[in-house]
């Protein structure tokens, strides 16, 4: 005996409030007695991490459940004393489950996840049950047109004094500007960076990067992770010189929307940044600008690339899944 779940839309990608429909396919090779066939719908978030090492290690975790519902597809009647019997063949059982409206986007990261799945179980008397669990993806829309600041120009700037072994070398200053603050996956972030090197030290090639900052909450504890999604290397800047890095582009890969609305345990923010580092021993100048990544683009935005759904995009990286998103980024933001 074998049980499978077939989604009606063929993709297993849905939005909050939508009905997840399809069929359970049960293939029977030999006559089999059963008690029932049921579906278990589960949507939940879990965070978990450890701090310290060895005997000093402490673990933190928390969870929240969005739905946990059992649905019977086939069961014997109350007046029936004998179990149901399935003869050899293929049986199809339709199902439909409406998702709640306020659930968060699917997500999976290092220290937590938001997961949605359905499990079919064929309950058999005096034998092992037959089960099959199949995940599905929820895309929770974030409409950039509802955020007044999404269509405003973004700007961030900072400066620092380059330190040397015997005193200061002079200041370096960096500014990054964008045409707006709201974007969707598939678009390019168009930015301009202006860097002034007033020190007597040459600067390494500057770097522009799109990064994701994730904060996981477990009761009163938090842990954070910052990951570079894509980057672009710019020119070196000699001592006493300035550089205008104009109308550069960073492409936005498939990503969950900012904030992860509806989830109290995981928060997501995105930044575009400029990093400038002297050749001599000195810390970097890091200038971040927070942007918002949504799922519905601005109506006034130009050169819009059609919005990508998880089920339609190609794998940007080998560890991105269109059905069960797992965002893994190995490059850490410089400090």
Describe this structure in words.
The protein is mainly β and 335 residues long. It folds into two domains: 2-138, Immunoglobulin-like, CATH 2.60.40.640; 144-293, Immunoglobulin-like. It has no helices and 21 strands. The protein is elongated, with a radius of gyration of 26 Å. Residues 302-335 have low confidence and may be disordered.
CATH architecture of the largest domain: Sandwich
Quick one: CATH class of the largest domain?
Answer: Mainly Beta
Sheet bearing the most strands, described?
5 strands, antiparallel
Mean pLDDT: 87
- CATH topology of the largest domain, by name, is Immunoglobulin-like
The beta-strand count equals 21
Order of helices and strands: EEEEEEEEEEEEEEEEEEEEE
DSSP helix fraction: under 10%
Radius of gyration: 26 Å
Q: Domain count, please report it.
A: 2
Pfam families: Arrestin_C, Arrestin_N
Organism: Potamilus streckersoni
InterPro entries: Arrestin-like_C (IPR014752), Arrestin-like_N (IPR011021), Arrestin_C-like (IPR011022), Arrestin_domain-protein (IPR050357), Ig_E-set (IPR014756)
Family: Belongs to the arrestin family.
């Amino acid at each position: 005996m074998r049980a499978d779940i077939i989604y009606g839309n063929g993709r297993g990608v849905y939005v909050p409030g939508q009905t997840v429909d399809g069929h359970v396919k049960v293939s029977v090779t030999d006559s089999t007695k059963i008690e029932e066939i049921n579906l278990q719908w589960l949507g939940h978030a879990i965070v978990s991490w450890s701090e310290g090492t060895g005997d000093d290690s402490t673990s933190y975790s928390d969870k929240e459940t969005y739905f946990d519902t059992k649905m019977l597809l086939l069961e014997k009647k109350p007046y029936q004393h004998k179990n149901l019997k399935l003869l050899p063949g293929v049986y199809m059982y339709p199902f439909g489950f409406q998702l709640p409206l306020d659930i968060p986007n699917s997500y999976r990261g290092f220290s937590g996840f938001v997961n949605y799945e359905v499990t079919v179980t064929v309950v058999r008397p005096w034998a092992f049950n037959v089960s099959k669990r199949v995940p599905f993806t929820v895309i929770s829309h974030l409409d950039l047109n509802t955020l007044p600041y999404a269509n405003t120009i973004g700007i961030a700037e900072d400066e620092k004094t380059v330190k040397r072994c015997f005193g200061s070398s002079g200041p370096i200053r960096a500014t990054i500007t964008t045409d707006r603050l709201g974007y969707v996956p598939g678009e390019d972030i168009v930015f301009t960076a202006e860097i002034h090197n007033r020190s007597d030290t040459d600067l390494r090639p500057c770097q522009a990067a799109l990064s994701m900052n994730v904060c996981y909450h477990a009761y009163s504890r938090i842990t954070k992770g910052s990951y570079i999604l894509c980057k672009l290397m710019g020119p070196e800047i000699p001592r006493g010189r300035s550089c205008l890095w104009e109308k550069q582009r960073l492409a936005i890969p498939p990503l969950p929307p900012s904030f992860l609305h509806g989830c109290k345990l995981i928060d997501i923010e995105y930044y575009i940044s400029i990093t400038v580092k002297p050749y001599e021993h000195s810390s970097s100048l890091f200038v971040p600008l927070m942007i918002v990544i949504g799922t519905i683009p601005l109506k006034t935005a130009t050169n819009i690339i059609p919005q990508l759904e998880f089920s339609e995009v190609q794998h940007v990286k080998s560890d991105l899944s269109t059905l069960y998103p797992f965002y893994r980024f190995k490059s850490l933001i410089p400090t």
